[in-house]
Design goal:
The protein is mainly alpha-helical and 161 residues long. Helix content is 74%, strand content 2%.
Length: 161
C-alpha cells in the first residue's frame, strides 16, 4: 500500500508540475526536452534492467507496462524539462552545478526508495551509478538543446523557416 501511495503521489505531482511548466514556458523547447528524454528512457533503462543491474519489483500500472513507466515517461522527463528551463541562460559553471544538484536530489530519493520500499532493487547498480548517469544525461540533453537552439537561430537569421 505504501508503494502505491508513493507512486500515485509522484504521478500527481509530476503531472501538475509539467502542466504548470508548460503553461508558463516556451512550449516548443519544453516539448523537445520532454520527447528527447522519453526517447532515451524508452530503451536505456530496459537494457540496464535486462542486464540485471537493477529492477522495479513494484511498478506503476504494472498490469499494462513492464517498465518503470512513471519514472521513465513522466517524473524524469518533467525534471529534465525543469532543469533545462532553469539553466537556459546559465553559464557553464551554473549548468554543471545545477546538474550536480538535480542529480544529487534524485539520487538521494532513489537511494531512500531502494532502501525502504519495493519500488527499486539494486543488483550490480549503486547510487553512484545513478548519480553519474543522471549528471551525464542532464548535460547531454542540455547540450543537444543548445545545438537545436543554435541551428534554429541560424535558420531564422537566414530567413529559412
Amino acid at each position: 500500500m505504501y508503494n502505491q501511495i508513493i507512486q500515485w503521489s509522484v504521478f500527481v505531482l509530476s503531472l501538475i508540475s509539467l502542466l504548470i511548466i508548460l503553461k508558463k514556458s516556451l512550449i516548443g523547447d519544453c516539448l523537445y526536452v520532454y520527447l528527447i528524454t522519453v526517447f532515451f528512457s524508452s530503451f536505456i533503462p530496459v537494457i540496464l534492467i535486462e542486464q540485471h543491474y537493477y529492477e522495479h519489483p513494484v511498478r506503476f500500472l504494472s498490469q499494462y507496462f513492464s517498465s518503470a513507466v512513471l519514472f521513465d515517461y513522466l517524473a524524469f522527463p518533467t525534471l529534465n524539462v525543469l532543469f533545462n528551463l532553469t539553466t537556459k541562460r546559465s553559464k557553464l559553471v551554473g549548468v554543471l552545478a545545477q546538474a550536480v544538484l538535480y542529480s544529487a536530489l534524485m539520487t538521494t530519493v532513489e537511494f531512500i526508495l531502494e532502501r525502504y520500499t519495493e519500488l527499486i532493487k539494486y543488483y550490480s547498480w549503486t547510487w553512484m551509478h545513478s548519480f553519474v548517469t543522471l549528471i551525464a544525461f542532464f548535460l547531454f540533453v542540455r547540450l543537444l538543446m543548445s545545438l537545436i537552439r543554435t541551428a534554429d537561430e541560424r535558420e531564422r537569421s537566414r530567413g529559412v523557416g
